[in-house]
């Protein structure tokens, strides 16, 4: 008989004593359980003791988390959190250097536990940590333990960052700004400032003033990868907390310092692989930079603005320079207006008498005008060739430069997600973005010439405008998906992907979809499905056995803490536990926590997950919702919460867990994989029927013959 749900069988250890094997009654008060354990070892004062996990993070057992204890768990009898907090509070004030160092080291470790942290903070322990930092008498290992303990204690959000004194903040800043400081202290100091910046405008201004961009760039160029990472984290925190004007000034300064080229050469193309954390920061930096275009993108043209009108006129003058040089007195005003209107029509404006009307649509607004002016000034030969080539064609085949530019700018804004908030988890950045100043404008210059090339390949007329722009969008998207490392490589690949290639790709994709429309083939598909679904199930379980590295993400900031989860080879137990940065595939024995598959009750995804509901008070991030899932085990209120690193991992894990629960696989990846496998299997099965049409109805079965005399009589052959 399995034990009742309210009873778990556990082992309890104590140094110098024989372990106790007990059945823990979950309904029994924890104080009574401790009393029984202490009595068994003849220990007085049971209130001075507590239970904690012997493995993993060694969390203290409390009434609120005791339901997380599993059958077979190993606990340890140790000093209670309040006693431990009292001892360490006294220890960190000791005059003995060794005692103080050991106390701070233990404090840094225990502060990860919320129960201990609460006890230590309630004794005004943070004040002592402030004093150690502010006095500045300690350095090296002792200071590193102090800063680590402070970071862990603040992580629990019991105390506001705004309570920090100016002296404390300036001391932390000094560790960042000094050269002769241990790298570990600088890393911790950068991490503290990164946490501080988003909490209030005042703290942002203090950090921005005290830690200059030059100093951050110095750390960013360090050979120490962790120091480089923390410097990038603080830079991103400052950019995200800045106002639009401040952000623009900061990005302009970074551009002057050639930060993009440094990142492109020394981080993206470094000999060391790029970590997930750095990839996320590069994505944010790219997003912040591109979003500087949002202001112009959302601003309609003002026909009364002389500056904007001059930009518009410069397009006409650059394209038709010789015609514009005619002296002012040669033509009347009406004739001059007529000539200008004709030239604006040749430029491809829809409203040639008042071209400003074409730019009143926002988006793309003035961003389209900026792109056209940039193209005309930086590549004047290509600009003139585009305009003059099309103005000499027949009216119905000319490619309208202005109309195409406006639509292309809108397409690029949509593809590059300009104007959209940064994701908290995304890591998708374009390497070529960091290899080029004026990336958006240079990309436009390549793509507007692509429009003209595709227009000619399609022999398009004005009626085909939307069709051409749809093809151009596809050419750009497909090429960007290849992640070219430079704009030159992008240009080569996007031009190679001509209209004929697009048609071939479309036809191939259409054939993949249409080849299965015949009734016999549909029947064969249905017959093959169970076998292929079983293959997908086995693949999902195999992926769970290999395991995945997950990140712990809070609503306040992106965490650098990692944990790993994997399924046992016999598919009966999920093993998980915290791991250090850089660990790729830890052995299953090193993961202390486990959940029997038999105890799993339900899978929750998205908004149903408890860890997404907890953060609903803040601005909920769409990406986190799409990647969140939870396993409900034992009783419904106890869950193991996940945030998958990618949508691909989310699909594989939710499918695998559904298989373990005996349910259908529901992710979109299942359907995609099934379609691919069915397509391959059908191709192999139908290989001999190539170029043979398959009838919708099976051929009729012929009537049986009147006699069977045509059968060979083997008895005569034997004689």
From TrEMBL:
<keyword id="KW-0053">Apoptosis</keyword>
<dbReference type="InterPro" id="IPR006816">
    <property type="entry name" value="ELMO_dom"/>
</dbReference>
<feature type="domain" description="ELMO">
    <location>
        <begin position="307"/>
        <end position="480"/>
    </location>
</feature>
<dbReference type="GO" id="GO:0017124">
    <property type="term" value="F:SH3 domain binding"/>
</dbReference>
<dbReference type="GO" id="GO:0048870">
    <property type="term" value="P:cell motility"/>
</dbReference>
<dbReference type="GO" id="GO:0006915">
    <property type="term" value="P:apoptotic process"/>
</dbReference>
<protein>
    <submittedName>
        <fullName>ELMO3 protein</fullName>
    </submittedName>
</protein>
<dbReference type="Pfam" id="PF11841">
    <property type="entry name" value="ELMO_ARM"/>
</dbReference>
<dbReference type="Pfam" id="PF16457">
    <property type="entry name" value="PH_12"/>
</dbReference>
<dbReference type="Pfam" id="PF04727">
    <property type="entry name" value="ELMO_CED12"/>
</dbReference>
<dbReference type="InterPro" id="IPR011989">
    <property type="entry name" value="ARM-like"/>
</dbReference>
<dbReference type="InterPro" id="IPR016024">
    <property type="entry name" value="ARM-type_fold"/>
</dbReference>
<dbReference type="InterPro" id="IPR050868">
    <property type="entry name" value="ELMO_domain-containing"/>
</dbReference>
<dbReference type="InterPro" id="IPR001849">
    <property type="entry name" value="PH_domain"/>
</dbReference>
<dbReference type="InterPro" id="IPR011993">
    <property type="entry name" value="PH-like_dom_sf"/>
</dbReference>
<dbReference type="InterPro" id="IPR024574">
    <property type="entry name" value="ELMO_ARM"/>
</dbReference>
<dbReference type="GO" id="GO:0006909">
    <property type="term" value="P:phagocytosis"/>
</dbReference>
<dbReference type="GO" id="GO:0007015">
    <property type="term" value="P:actin filament organization"/>
</dbReference>
<comment type="function">
    <text>Involved in cytoskeletal rearrangements required for phagocytosis of apoptotic cells and cell motility. Acts in association with DOCK1 and CRK. Was initially proposed to be required in complex with DOCK1 to activate Rac Rho small GTPases. May enhance the guanine nucleotide exchange factor (GEF) activity of DOCK1.</text>
</comment>
<keyword id="KW-0581">Phagocytosis</keyword>
<keyword id="KW-0729">SH3-binding</keyword>
């Amino acid at each position: 008989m399995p034990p009742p749900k309210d009873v778990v069988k556990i082992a309890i250890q104590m140094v110098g004593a024989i372990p106790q094997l007990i059945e823990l009654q979950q309904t029994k008060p924890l104080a009574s359980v401790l009393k029984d354990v202490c009595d068994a070892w003849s220990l007085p004062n049971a209130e001075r003791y507590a239970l904690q996990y012997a493995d993993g993070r060694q969390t203290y057992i409390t009434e609120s988390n005791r339901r997380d204890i599993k059958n077979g768990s190993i606990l340890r009898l140790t000093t209670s959190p309040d006693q431990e907090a009292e001892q360490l509070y006294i220890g960190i004030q000791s005059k003995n250097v060794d005692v103080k160092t050991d106390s701070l080291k233990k404090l840094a470790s225990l502060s990860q536990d919320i129960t201990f942290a609460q006890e230590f903070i309630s004794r005004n322990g943070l004040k002592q940590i402030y004093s150690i930092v502010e006095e500045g008498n300690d350095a090296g290992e002792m200071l590193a333990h102090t800063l680590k303990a402070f970071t862990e204690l603040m992580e629990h959000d019991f105390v506001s960052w705004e309570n920090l004194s100016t002296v404390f903040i300036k001391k932390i800043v000094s560790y960042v700004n000094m050269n002769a400081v241990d790298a570990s202290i600088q890393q911790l100091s950068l991490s503290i400032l990164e946490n501080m910046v988003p909490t209030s405008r005042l703290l942002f201004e203090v950090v921005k003033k005290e830690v200059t961009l030059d100093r951050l760039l110095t750390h960013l160029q360090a050979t120490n990868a962790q120091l480089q990472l923390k410097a990038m984290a603080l830079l991103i925190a400052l950019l995200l907390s800045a106002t639009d004007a401040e952000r623009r000034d900061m990005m302009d300064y970074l551009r002057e310092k050639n930060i993009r080229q440094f990142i492109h050469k020394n981080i993206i193309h470094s000999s060391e692989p790029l970590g997930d954390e750095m990839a996320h920061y590069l994505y944010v930096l790219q997003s912040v930079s591109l979003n500087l275009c949002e202001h112009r993108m959302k601003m309609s043209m003002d026909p009364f603005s002389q500056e904007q009108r001059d930009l518009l006129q410069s397009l006409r003058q650059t394209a038709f320079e010789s015609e514009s040089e005619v002296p002012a007195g040669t033509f009347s005003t009406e004739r001059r207006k007529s000539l200008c209107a004709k030239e604006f029509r040749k430029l491809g404006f829809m409203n040639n008498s008042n071209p400003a009307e074409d730019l009143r649509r926002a988006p793309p607004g003035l961003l389209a005008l900026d792109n056209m002016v940039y193209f005309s000034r930086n590549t004047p030969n290509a600009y003139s060739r585009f305009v003059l080539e099309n103005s000499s064609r027949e009216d119905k085949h000319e490619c309208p430069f202005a109309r195409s530019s406006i639509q292309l700018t809108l397409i690029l804004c949509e593809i590059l997600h300009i104007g959209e908030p940064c994701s908290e988890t995304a890591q998708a950045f374009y390497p070529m973005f960091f290899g080029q100043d004026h990336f958006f404008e240079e990309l436009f210059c390549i793509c507007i010439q692509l429009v003209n090339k595709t227009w000619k390949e399609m022999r398009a007329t004005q009626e085909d405008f939307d069709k051409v722009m749809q093809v151009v969008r596809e050419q750009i998207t497909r090429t960007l998906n290849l992640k070219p490392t430079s704009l030159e490589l992008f240009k080569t690949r996007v031009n190679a992907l001509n209209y004929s290639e697009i048609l071939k790709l479309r036809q191939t994709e259409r054939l993949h979809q249409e080849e299965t429309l015949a009734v016999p083939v549909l029947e064969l598909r249905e017959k093959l499905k169970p076998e292929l679904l079983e293959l997908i199930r086995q693949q999902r379980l195999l992926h769970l056995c290999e395991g995945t590295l997950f990140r712990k993400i809070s609503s306040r900031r992106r965490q650098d803490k990692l944990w790993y989860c994997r399924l046992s080879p016999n598919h009966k137990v999920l093993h998980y536990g915290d791991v250090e940065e850089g660990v790729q595939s830890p052995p299953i024995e090193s993961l202390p926590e486990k959940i029997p598959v038999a105890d799993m009750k339900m899978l929750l995804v998205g908004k149903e997950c408890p860890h997404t509901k907890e953060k609903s008070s803040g601005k909920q991030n769409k990406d986190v919702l799409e990647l969140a899932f939870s396993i409900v085990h034992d009783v419904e209120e106890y869950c193991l919460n996940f945030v998958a690193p990618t949508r691909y991992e989310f699909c594989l894990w939710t499918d695998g867990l559904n298989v373990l629960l005996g349910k259908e696989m529901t992710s979109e990846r299942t359907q995609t994989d099934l379609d691919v496998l069915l397509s391959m299997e059908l191709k192999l099965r139908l290989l001999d029927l190539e170029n043979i049409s398959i009838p919708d109805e099976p051929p009729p079965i012929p009537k049986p013959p009147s006699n069977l005399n045509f059968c060979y009589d083997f008895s005569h052959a034997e004689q």
